[in-house]
Amino acid sequence: MTILNADLHCHSTVSDGTLAPEALAERAKANGVELWSLTDHDEVGGQHRAAAAAHALGLPYLSGVEISVTFAGLTVHIVGLGVDPDDPQLMQGLAHTRGGRERRAREMADQLAAVGIRGAFEGALKYVGNPELISRTHFARFLVEAGVCHDTHEVFRRFLTEGKPGYVEHHWATLGDAVRWITQAGGIAVIAHPARYAHPNPTQEYALFAEFAAHGGRAVEVVTGSHSSAEAVRYADMALEFGLAASRGSDFHSPDESHTDLGALPYLDGRLTPVWELLAHRIQH
Ligand code: AMP
Ligand code: MN
Ligand code: MN
Ligand code: MN
């Protein structure tokens, strides 16, 4: 059923969101979400709380995660839905992926200090809910607080991105590892927000889809907070071309920062196979 208000992508204080898993569950329910997943970056530490909160509200739930991957020099995000959050290989892989974040954050702060912005490491840390998950989003919040930028969108235009102060190149998980961790933990791997990657040419985007499918990846996020309607059409066509199922998720991070609220998305195109049809056995009621 493509006409379902599923929201299968968002972030809590366990990664770079500002709401706790319980508050997100309540917001999803209040916004009319009919199937929900919390997909924190590189971390499943919020999954039991999210599932319990959803259960208490009568909100069907799929466990989730969003894994940072380096593919052909680009950072790509792979969402895993329906994974067993206690799977030892998945937990070990995620712990390894989180591992370099503190050192990276210190280098980011050094670069910002070099352009006159002091105390960024400590400043970002104040916003961090999980000490293993210091992210660029936390630095962005500090730069707004410090009056350097008006909002976090301005931060990512002027800082923390390639070629700008505070950008540190980083090697995340490989595409194959991320897809395998998800799949062997009982889940389905999904290419997150595919329109957001600066592939140098169309061939590289095809390579991402082809290699993802070859590793066992089975779905792509077609409708998501950062996709225009034209991008949703483009990736609906790509899903059909590559025989992938389709996912839908807001990528909500914060009431103050996110353009798209939980559940406030167009429905999936009726030609697509929704990823939740493949995951019916993993939905927690
Ligand atoms: P990290 O995993 O530390 O590299 O941080 C990535 C996070 O930063 C993303 O999940 C977003 O929450 C945020 N982010 C990255 N780029 C942008 C951007 N251009 N605009 C807004 N948020 C961004
Ligand atoms: Mn994020
Ligand atoms: Mn992402
Ligand atoms: Mn996300």
TrEMBL record:
Domain Polymerase/histidinol phosphatase N-terminal: 6-71
UniProt KW keywords: Hydrolase
SUPFAM superfamilies xref list: PHP domain-like (SSF89550)
Keyword Transit peptide: no
Gene Ontology molecular functions: 3',5'-nucleotide bisphosphate phosphatase activity; 5'-3' DNA exonuclease activity; 5'-3' RNA exonuclease activity
Keyword match Transport: no
Gene3D superfamilies cross-referenced by the UniProt entry: 1.10.150.650, Metal-dependent hydrolases
Record SMART domains: POLIIIAc
The protein's enzyme class: hydrolase
InterPro entries in the record: 35NBP, PHP_dom, PHP_domain, Pol/His_phosphatase_N, Pol/histidinol_Pase-like
Enzyme Commission number(s) of this protein: 3.1.3.97
UniProt-recorded name of the protein: 3',5'-nucleoside bisphosphate phosphatase
Organism of this sequence: Tepidimonas fonticaldi
